[in-house]
From TrEMBL:
Keyword Oxidoreductase: yes
Keywords: Monooxygenase, Oxidoreductase
Record-given protein name: Luciferase
Residues annotated as domain Luciferase-like: 13-251
Organism: Mycobacterium asiaticum
Stored Pfam families: Bac_luciferase (PF00296)
Superkingdom of origin: Bacteria
Transmembrane region(s): none
Any one GO MF annotation of this record: monooxygenase activity
GO cellular component, one term: cytosol
Amino acid sequence: MTMPVMEPALDAALLRDWARAIDEGPFSSLCWGERIAFGNPDSLTLLGAVSAWTQRVRLVTTVIVPQLHDPVMLAKALATGDLLSNGRLTVGIGVGGRHEDYNAVGADPKTQTMRGMAERVAVMKRVWAGEKITESVLPVGPSPVQAGGPPLHVGTIGPKTVRSAAAWADGMAGTTLDLDVAKQNELFDVARTSWAEASKPAPHLATSFWFAFGSPDDARAQVHRHLRRYMNWIPAEFVDAMAPTTGWAGTERELVTVLRQFAEIGTDEVHLIPTSSDIDQLRRAADAVAAL
């Protein structure tokens, strides 16, 4: 379950209530995404909070863009999150899709490549291994609880990116706009093959989609409102055109059917993305997941 970090009018109490309800529910992970030029909470600050608010679920960043951060400081922050959560952190990372976020922090958009990301991942792994990367007296700490650092999942929807990530990633955290299970399985097959060719264990396979509960019209309208807000870098007419077929809207029973379809192709996790901060949406999703 994803935190409603891209919704308006957030406060500490609402975020805490969501985190604790996710931890108490049937969900395997608590997820949240990163944007810079937007009203969402800072991802690394939130990592500290959800580490304290939860005890059971894994904590998954979906996704952090390492090119927007100094890699040493990012490694230190994530190792701290792994320490505070007692080894429950999984780091989803990607190149990001918005130049405005790069510009907001003075990052070079030319680094918005898989090579640029892989170079920063290499630095982070050196930090987590306890290597001195400068002539400092001591290496950069703390040491992560998970040996070698938290698992890394590449956030992508493209086969080329999946293949290039096999060298350093432990899995993938994709997304599906139209819930095309067959198309998602094709991408999973690329990951399975790429990891095998790299002589690595089978990858963790995750995807995600937006959801809304309610009557057909109300639930679909909720998804549409969310997309209009979240996809504010895309012309509104394009968002309006894609909204009727993007994400999922319906009843608990219908969601169970969709989740089972993804399970049948070997999906390890589906990261559900709320389109409202109404905690009743979370509770309804918990009821559906508990029925699986």
